[in-house]
Amino acid sequence: MEASMGREQDIKAITDLIRPVFHGLYKAAEENLKTRSLSVPQRGMLQCLLEQGAQTVPMLAQRLLVQRQFALRLVNELERLELLEREPNPSHKRSDRFRLSESGARLIAEVLAIEANVSAQALSQRSDEELGAAARVLSELRSYFSAEGSR
Predict the structure, then answer these.
(1) Label partner for 70 (CA 20 to 30 A): which of 18, 77, 95, 128?
(2) Per the database record, which ranges form the HTH marR-type domain (predicted)?
(3) Rounded distance between C-alpha atoms, residue 115 and residue 122, angstroms
(4) Residue 98 is inside which H or E element, if any?
(5) Separation between Cα atoms, residue 111 and residue 25, nearest integer Å
(6) Residue 28 CB coordination number (10 Å)
(7) 3-state secondary structure of 38
(8) So what's the pLDDT on residue 4?
(9) Domain assignments of the chain as residue spans, ordered by start
């Protein structure tokens, strides 16, 4: 019973900490993006395109866990900023795919490098085992809630 109570407390602690950590990361990202005229959601879409390659708006919405209309708005904004480009979609003539432009790829690489430095500083005292365990726990939560959203 005592081990069970510790587990419940750990699960509660993890879920209670996610929101303030998210807000802290969001605030740090906003600060980093101020001089780049880019919002945090736009930054997320650029990162998704960098990591996943060209995608349609519905694919982006699903990967970013946002509504299609919001994803479309982001795509339109980023296209106006010339940070992404349209390309034909071989599997659907009426639904273009979007990919990073050269300037979009440069910008997101720069932003991610700065963020990686900040994160490395913040977690410099953690062991490789602790970091691996944290990554696995957060990945499990992401998978669970991603599946929940699509039901």
Answers:
(1) 18
(2) 11-143
(3) 11
(4) strand 97-100
(5) 13
(6) 16
(7) coil
(8) 64
(9) 14-149
